[in-house]
Amino acid sequence: SYDRAASLRSASDLFNFLVPLLALLLVTRSAQARWLSRALVSVACVIALHALVQYALGADQLSHRPTGPFSHYMTLGGFLVLVDCFLLAWIAFADGWRRWWSWAALLLLQAALLVSFTRNAWIALTALVVVVTLVRRPRLLLAWAALFLVLLVLAPTPLVARFGSIVDLDERSNYDRLCMAYAGAEMIADRPLLGHGPRTVRILYPYYRHPTAPSLWVPHLHNSFLNLGAERGLLSVAALLGMLGVAARRAFERLRASPPQAERELLVAVLLVILATLVTGLFEDYWNDTEIQRLVLFSLALPFCLPPSTAPAPDRTSSPDDEAPAA
Prior knowledge:
mainly alpha
């Protein structure tokens, strides 16, 4: 590291990786995993209500957004979209009263997600809805598109303007992110394997920034993969993608084994969490966000926590040895 004192303080991040180990030790039955996922959704509903109250009390501007109990509005958006993965899996595969309960929770979370003004979470949610719809009910895509147009017409002007800014390259923050990508690529090119050291982007960015970059200093590169590569090298990026890939493969293998419905919902939720992590990571450095990282690590451990599917016992055929001896 170019700044060993700054990097040494990041050693506490290693404790986050106790999450999957604790999950493997403590979550050994499907019922426990289902209980934890429902508790997670219940907590997210309380957090969403907190954010909506903040919005009603004046946190309704881009410069002053709801944060819920978190320290930053980006953390709120990232947390809610990850919990959305569990709700979308329940809605897609559950039936009866739980599906309606899931719809109610989903609507509450989306209301809080909208007023958080976090565009990366909106993009990730769109990707999740499209994927789930294509897998379960492809014909509903037109209905979703119509609903989106209705919401676009009825939404408050600040939300519509925020949504329209997603594709506006002249918008300051969008152009700034392109400049951060340039700086991140330059930093990785200088030290590709091990990076410049944890928490050094904020120190070195002024030396690597593009001359036309709007920001003279940034705390991170607003991209999980670029920031990880710049600080900890491409080996760390490969390790992160490897963790996501191994968990996705395990979830697909378990799904092919035709597990019970409750387990299938959890496995689909894990796959959606992986998709959301990839999409949001392109626009925000969520991997350095402890609340987000721990939730992702817990989700990646779930396919390995569920007990192996028990195959039906083969029919035993009688053999001469099993027959009673002749008199």
